Amino acid sequence: MANEILSLGYEQLYSDRLEETKSMITLATLLDVLDQGVGEDLTYRSIMAKAYEEAESANPKGIPTRTPEVSLVSSVVRSNVKIMIYNIIEFSVTSLVQAIYDRIEGEQCGYAEVSEKLRAIWHRTRMRSRLNDPTANNNTAERVSKELLDHAVANTTLHFETRHSIAGGNLDGDKILQLFNDHGVVVHAAEGNYRANELKDIKDRRNGLAHGSVSFEEAGSQITTSELAELLSHVDSFLTQLRKDVIAYLDAGRYRLAGEGPSMG
pLDDT per residue over 136-162, tens digit each? Predict the structure, then answer.
């Protein structure tokens, strides 16, 4: 199957989320311009003063605060862009890994057909998910090991779940490369404008905001809109390369044990 015509099923959502994020960068840029003023009576303060009057008349119970300063609003928007970029990363990575799992299930690959790397992932994630069960006891490991062995011997279709193989909220560059390497995918990171420091900062900022250790104003004040646009471009380039590499992996059948071809039955 030609790389350019293979769809993995998530591309339209990816495009939509990318455009949403770009629109928020545009909004932050416009707020910065309004702060400087684009005419005698067209400033952030004048526009918000009029909007505030309208809002007060439409809300008899009042509005929680006075109009926030433009610097605060712009910083919050920029912080949200960081979160949106991280969400795009996690959504894309999850969709790409799911595409691998869907192919395995679609071809009804059993333990004997999949690669050694996928066997290791299947065994590790199944063991971990069962042993993390609150009802697990001293006999659980032995019982689960036997179940997995029986499943492998029977060679019935393997089932993988991304929630067991991907650590949500913890995807930086190193973790992403390791994840795909664990699945046997060769990632051409250099061709995708890969920047480990940027991906780590995105993850750290997202987690800091999510856990409340960093304020939205603080996080957003440390980056300009032009820097955000460049950051999003780098991430888009890397994720696009990841997609190409997963498609190449699927086309070459590298999810299968060496020498095993797809079932024709």
Answer: 777 888 888 888 998 899 999 999 999
Is residue 231 helix, strand or coil?
helix
pLDDT score for 3? 44
Whole-number Å distance between alpha carbons of 210 and 213? 8
- C-alpha 259/C-alpha 253 separation (Å) is 10
Tokens for 10, please give them.
């998530």
Q: What are 211's two structure tokens?
A: 């856990």
**Contact predicate 220/79, CB 8 Å:** yes
Give the number of other Cβ atoms within 10 Å of residue 179's Cβ: 19
- Residue matched to tokens 């990363």: 89
- Half-sphere exposure of residue 221, counting CA atoms within 13 Å on the CB side? 10
Residue 67 CB burial class (10 angstroms; 0-12, 13-18, ≥19): middle
86 has pLDDT over 80: yes
pTM of the model as a whole: 0.90
Q: Over the stretch 182-204, which tens digit does the pLDDT of each residue have?
A: 999 999 999 999 999 999 999 99
Distance of CA 108 to the CA centre of its chain: 27
